[in-house]
Amino acid sequence: MKSITSYKAVFFDLDGTLIDSAKDLSFAINQMVQELGLAEPSLQDIKNWIGNGTLKLVERTLDFNNIEPNQIDLNKALELFSNAYRECVGEYSTLFPGAKELLIKLLANNIKLACITNKPLEFTEFLLQQNMISQFFSVICAGDNVKFKKPNKWPLVYASEVVNSPLRDCVMVGDSQHDIAAARNAGCDVIAVSYGYNHGENISIANPDMIIDSFIELL
User: Fold this and answer.
1) Is the pLDDT of residue 68 over 90?
2) Which residues are known catalytic residues?
């Protein structure tokens, strides 16, 4: 696989790739379940459930408690979670080693950057700002400002159009099977990080083009 600096654009996933956000999400989920009188999942449970957006995270928490919610129950739980997450988003999150340095290196090489995540835009923008990396991205494709979310190719196709780079000249960097599937569906290369969440599964099973243990390897 070619060097990352030989691409015209690099697309980054957020949670579990650029930022370790599990503690924020765990805190908000635990606030939610306390309000509902339910059992608290562990931090590892939360890590295994991240990747399909906040609605799915709430659904998995209710399923953990053996609850099959109707729409009213789900809306209530999602509102409780969202309110708690607004209060803590970014508070416990940290950039993974080498993340900011890599973003700086890529921009220095005139490479366009996009953030492509299934997290809602409101929380995505705040998390990027809290970690002082929002200025690096030309486009943000979040879970609620796109037609279709990952693993659909649509966010990657849209991002490539915005940055005016053919998909063959783009690479996706992510931590989950959904990132890899989205890249395959779009026809672009994909780099996976080994330290991410990916529902507790080894990322090698999804067969990315490259696996790295740290962004430092790409500097």
Assistant:
1) no
2) 13
